[in-house]
Amino acid sequence: MMLKLLHVGNKSDLPQNRIQRFWQELDKDSGSVDFAEFTEWYLKYFNLAQELAMHFMLCALCGRSLSQDLSAA
After folding, report:
1. Can you say whether residue 70 is alpha, beta or left, with left for phi > 0 and alpha for psi between -120 and 50 degrees?
2. pLDDT truncated to tens, each residue of the chain (73 aa)?
3. What whole-number distance in Å separates Cα of residue 14 and Cα of residue 31?
4. Is 39 exposed, middle or buried (0-12, 13-18, 19+ CB in 10 A)?
5. Which end of the chain has a smaller Cβ tally under 10 Å, C or N?
6. Residues 37, 27: contact at Cβ < 8 Å?
7. 1 membership: H or E segment, kind and range
8. Is the CB of residue 54 less than 8 Å from the CB of residue 48?
9. What is the model's pLDDT at position 46?
10. What is the 3-state secondary structure (H, E, C) of 13-73?
């Protein structure tokens, strides 16, 4: 799953220390990750990236720039 989330083709392209860091952030208590822990971690790191990508796509479709959108807020 981690390879897909990070858009990595081969496991060897993902450094072991990065996997360990993610695991430490994911699992806070027991040596295994439950759904609540995964969801919190996923939303922290991946949901924002998806929202920004969608925002850029919508700005491009509407002919607006991100700076125009931010100044209107």
Report:
1. alpha
2. 777 877 788 888 888 888 888 888 888 788 888 888 888 888 887 776 666 766 666 677 776 655 555 555 5
3. 21
4. exposed
5. C
6. yes
7. none
8. no
9. 77
10. HCCHHHHHHHHHHHCCCCCCCCHHHHHHHHHHHHHHHHHHHHHHHHHHHHCCCHHHHHHHC
